[in-house]
Fold this sequence. Notes:
Elements: E1 4-7, H1 11-24, E2 27-33, H2 40-44, E3 47-52, H3 63-73, E4 77-79, H4 89-97, E5 101-102, H5 107-114, H6 116-125, H7 141-151, E6 155-159, E7 169-171, H8 177-192, E8 197-201, E9 207-216, E10 221-233, E11 236-242, H9 249-266, E12 269-279, E13 282-289, H10 296-303, H11 307-315, E14 332-339, E15 351-352, E16 355-357, E17 364-368, E18 375-376, E19 383-391, H12 394-407, E20 409-411, H13 417-423, H14 427-431, H15 438-444
Parallel strand pairs: 1-2, 1-4, 2-3, 4-5
Antiparallel strand pairs: 6-7, 6-8, 9-10, 9-12, 10-11, 11-14, 12-13, 14-19, 15-18, 16-20, 17-19
Amino acid sequence: MFDKILxxxxxxxxxxVLRACKELGIATVAVHSTADxxxxxxxxxxxxxxxxxxxxxxxxxxIPALLAACEITGADAxxxxxxxxxxxxRFAEILAEHNVHFIGPRPEHIRLMGDxxxxxxxxxxxxxxxxxGSDGSIGSDEEARRLACGIGYPxxxxxxxxxxxxxxxxxxxxxxxVSALALARSEAKAAFGDDTIYLEKYLERPRHxxxxxxxxxxxxxxxxxxxxxxxxxxxxxxxxxxxxPALNATARxxxxxxxxxxxxEIKYLGVxxxxxxxxxxxxxxxxxxxxxxxxxxxxxxxxxxDLVVEQIRVAADGDLGFTQDKxxxxxxxxxxxxxAENAVSFRPSPGKIVHYHPPGGLGVRVDSAVYxxxxxxxxxxxxxGKLIVHGKxxxxxxxxxxxxxxxxxxxxxxxxxxxFRALAREKDIIxxxxxxxxxxxxxxxxxxxx
Length: 450
């Protein structure tokens, strides 16, 4: 096991990793920008190191500063959390060159799955079903036109190095193709430094369903069920739940075993998430995230497995602590991402929290790094915290969620709490009858004003 872990992140995920380390008896090092010197994970860590000014490029993305922090403190491992450098294969390689363990997958798997075109090819070879589309990147506009006609409109153009909706455009007819390709290339180049794009069939009303996987890097891997992440705004997840209301046990077991088998074949190390669009009973692979997910507590609630602890254990050359047949799923869990944003316009609302009262009670969990008097800085993402609830059934879970949302108090800034209070009372949500476009359609028709 590791002696000391440096947590190369901030906010609630840094605090989440710190808690796992403490339960394993591992010393911790918090790194922080000057804007985060009063952060909760900095206060609770065994040691802390300031790594730069507020801009991420000068602090949390500053690899030399992180290496220096490892050397100063004697940390023998780095946990990257999610975001920032969590899926940076070169960072993992640089750490290895300095005899520091990276708590995550091997660089080759990060690099493979970070390229959406290569990931799709790999998925096909591993027997994972994919969305109909181009076999590789798109060159000329004429090539794109031929492919789009063969796939059939509507189609979607995506950035090969992308994520978060950037470089992604839906094309409904041939007349829209050339301008959409140019815009997608431009966005991809600006966001990722790479204008490589590819085409896929655009599914009209799919659900976004992802399977959690865990491997020991030695050929053993399991799946821990699925999460339904279909409630999204601008391709950003807002509400996640597990199990999915759209799947039965047979579909869950079949697709879960498909992804677990694939992870065994490539000897995947650590946690990961294989993501699909699901429509008319069919799964279509879209990407794999080679890190812990924001929504990992949903899986923890329905499996009673601490994913961060397991992530650390297998990174330390440990074996999986359980086999697939020992995994038991129980009940239902829902996570709401509470952001410091206006609930209607989603305009960011950084500032000081003057009153803070998280909900409690049976089956209620809040993952947050804020506290009374904490000031949310304007430099990073706007996540205040994650509210996760669990119940024996989905109906019980929804009732518990309504109660917890009504108890949640965050004053001094605007938050998205009103959005979730409205969603928890919507008939489609209660019935589990929604898709990836549902939330934007709900907002477009003024759902919060009704």
